[in-house]
Amino acid sequence: MSGHELRLALADERETRALGGKLATTLDDGLVVFLSGDLGAGKTCLVRGVLQALGFKGAVKSPTYTLVEDYSLAGRIIYHFDLYRLHYPEELDLIGVRDYFDGQACCFVEWPEKGEGWLPMADLEVHITHKGQAREARLTSCTDKGSRIVDSLQEPRSTL
Q1: Which domain holds residue 17?
Q2: Alpha-carbon torsion (5, 116, 121, 76), positive or negative
Q3: Which of 4, 20, 70, 128 has a Cα-to-Cα distance from 141 of 20 to 30 A?
Q4: Angle at the Cα of 127 (from 148 to 141), degrees rounded to 5?
Q5: CA-to-CA distance for 13 and 61, rounded, in angstroms?
Q6: Per-residue CA distances from 98 to 31, 55, 115 (Å)
Q7: Cis link prior to 120 (omega < 30° from 0)?
Q8: CA distance 159 to 153
Q9: Domain assignment of residue 159, yes or no
């Protein structure tokens, strides 16, 4: 059932946050989402949309220097990772990365390729690319859980 794909045109930052808001309605315990794309593509903006939809009122910044930020919202634990500054995947052991992926928390991981071999399999991969001033998000399911998310975002088809 995995391997479902959805491509969405995102005209601006508002639409990227709106996609995050839609993702927030589909969160499941233990969900793992890998976020990829160039610097400035909108990965953190997407996570910002998820967190704001769950009621977070503060600033959502990329955890580039801290590696991980945690949020407790709407009865959920959300971890937002940014592995951009990681030199070696083994560094993830220093922060006890396996403890974060406990089957309860939802984990959003920017630059997952930097943690290859140390991260669990993603349920959903989101790749964001620049399309001029706009963006395109490609959501690909890797598990049945991810397929349910992709399917729910397709039906009924609505505008962001």
Answers
A1: 5-154
A2: negative
A3: 70
A4: 20
A5: 15
A6: 14, 27, 12
A7: no
A8: 10
A9: no
CATH code at position 31: 3.40.50.300
User: For each of the chain's 160 residues, which pLDDT tens digit applies?
Assistant: 567 899 999 999 999 999 999 999 999 999 999 999 998 899 999 999 999 999 999 888 888 778 999 999 988 999 999 999 998 999 999 889 999 999 999 999 999 999 999 999 999 999 999 888 899 999 999 999 999 999 999 855 544 5
**Structural domains of the chain, count:** 1
For residue 76, tell me if it sits in a domain.
yes
Residue type, 67: L
The residue assigned the tokens 């990965």 is 43
Q: Which of 2, 7, 4, 1 is nearest to 136 (CA)?
A: 7
Alpha carbons 104 and 134: distance in angstroms, whole number? 34
Q: What is the pTM of this model?
A: 0.92
* Separation between Cα atoms, residue 60 and residue 114, nearest integer Å: 22
* In a domain? residue 160: no
Pick from 67, 113, 70: nearest CA to 92: 67
Contact 112, 34 (CB under 8 A): yes
The residue assigned the tokens 């499941």 is 28
For residue 119 the two structure tokens come to 């991260």
Separation of CA 56 from chain center? 16
